[in-house]
Amino acid sequence: NFMLTQPHSVSESPGKTVTISCTRSSGSIASNYVQWYQQRPGSAPTTVIYEDNQRPSGVPDRFSGSIDSSSNSASLTISGLRTEDEADYYCQSYDSSNVVFGGGTKVTVL
Amino acid sequence: QLQLQESGPGLVKPSETLSLTCTVSGGSISSTSYYWGWIRQPPGKGLEWIGTIYYSGSTYYNPSLKSRVTIFVDTSKNQFSLKLSSVTAADTAVYYCARRGVPWMATTNIDYWGQGTLVTVSS
After folding, report:
1. Residue B23: count of CB within 10 angstroms of its CB
2. A35–B52: do the CB atoms touch at under 8 Å?
3. Do A44 and B108 touch (CB under 8 A)?
């Protein structure tokens, strides 16, 4: 089984850009899709990026996703940071048997 | 619009079995394109996948919980259920039921979540 490692927290000012990494411990990051979820306090998570780089309808194009095979990691980038983006973000992937979540990253908008 | 709703006791005693049911409305649990599963989140902590079931009854469990977890489906009621045995305080969490797409048949993200239900393990 593999693990996904995220930074515990990131912070940036409104209007700036933040990037959250998600590193896969074993196996290729490209072998299974990565999704990203946003979770605000008291609410269930919602998808902001699915299948590495796809945005669900209704998610602003300020949110983008990518994968990098050289570092075996996925990234979520939020540009033009807004106060409403302050939340916890989780990456998630899977293999033939398991679903794996990253530990979550708290995004603080200063 | 698909909806998932968890139900079950909010308080369970240590060493007993936690039982939750997820009722699916607005769609069929017998769809071949989706998995159904349970995810939990201890207070102030991250998300943990518990397990997944396919409408056929095939199950996949988190290796760290496998010895204590059973997930089963009742297609006639459009429900699936979770049983977690021998609970301790460490099992206190918000428990979510959720739907995830089967690769190559639907998008693979968790696209629908229940609202979550807090289960506290305490005597």
Report:
1. 18
2. no
3. no
SS3 A39: strand
Phi-psi region of B15 (alpha: psi -120 to 50; beta: other; left: phi over 0): left
Torsion sign across C-alpha atoms B49, B54, B57, B59: negative
Q: What residue has token string 């902590």?
A: B45
pLDDT tens by residue, A26-69: 999 999 999 999 999 999 999 999 999 999 999 999 999 999 99
Q: Which amino acid makes up residue B76?
A: S
Measured between CB atoms, which of A44, A88, A90 is closest to B113?
A44
Average pLDDT of A74-81?
98
What CA–CA distance (Å, rounded) separates B67 from B63?
8
Q: In what order do the strands lie in the sheet with B69-74?
A: B3-7, B18-25, B79-84, B69-74
Beta carbons of B21 and B84 less than 8 angstroms apart: no
C-alpha–C-alpha distance, residues A99 and B118, integer Å: 22
What is the predicted pLDDT for the residue at B116? 98
Instruction: Extract the tokens encoding A47.
Output: 């998808």
Q: What is the DSSP letter of B115?
A: -
CB contact under 8 A, B109 and A45: no
Q: What is the 3-state secondary structure (H, E, C) of B56-90?
A: CCCEEECCCCHHHEEEEEECCCCEEEEEECCCCHH
First to last CA, chain B: 39
